[in-house]
Amino acid sequence: MSEIQVTQLGQVVAGFDSPEAAVLERVPNPQKGQVYLARFTAPEFTSLCPVTGQPDFATLVIDYAPGDWLVESKSLKLFLSSFRNHGAFHEDCTLTIGRRLVETAKPLWLRIGGYWYPRGGIPIDVFWQTGAPPEGLWLPDQGVAPYRGRG
């Protein structure tokens, strides 16, 4: 992807049937060269259990230190919603999202926390990051309480 080539921002987009079909876009970082953290929080993320087909729910917290590119937020919203009818385990969903963001935006650093509501009475929280954060990056807590009804 070269300079700005957004196809969804400002357009009516029907959405995508699967994460593989979803188009995740990026835009140039106007603060390139600065070390800072950008956070996306998706408190109503939904996918399907690949065994039962029942819905699974999570709060996703995505923190990244942008490099040359920013994640275009509308495309991220559409990408995340493409999991709505997608069957995958919690671990697979969380890492697929993190790895796709890294592939698209090429951040200096990224971490994702998937805080999943219980399945079978056990909450499964999934965490992944690309490595050590850049020197001087402020890393706030992700702000999601340990499971107690997650309310």
UniProtKB/TrEMBL annotation:
Pathway: tRNA modification; tRNA-queuosine biosynthesis. It is found in: Cytoplasm. Its EC number is 1.7.1.13. It is an enzyme of class 1 (oxidoreductase). The keyword NADP applies. The active site is at residues 49, 56. One of its GO terms (cellular component) is cytoplasm. GO terms for biological process: tRNA queuosine(34) biosynthetic process. It comes from the Bacteria. GO terms for molecular function: preQ1 synthase activity. It catalyses: 7-aminomethyl-7-carbaguanine + 2 NADP(+) = 7-cyano-7-carbaguanine + 2 NADPH + 3 H(+). The keyword Lipid biosynthesis does not apply. Substrate binds at residues 71-73, 90-91. Keywords: Cytoplasm, NADP, Oxidoreductase, Queuosine biosynthesis. Catalyzes the NADPH-dependent reduction of 7-cyano-7-deazaguanine (preQ0) to 7-aminomethyl-7-deazaguanine (preQ1). HAMAP family: QueF_type1. Belongs to the GTP cyclohydrolase I family. QueF type 1 subfamily. This is NADPH-dependent 7-cyano-7-deazaguanine reductase. It comes from Phenylobacterium parvum. The gene is queF.
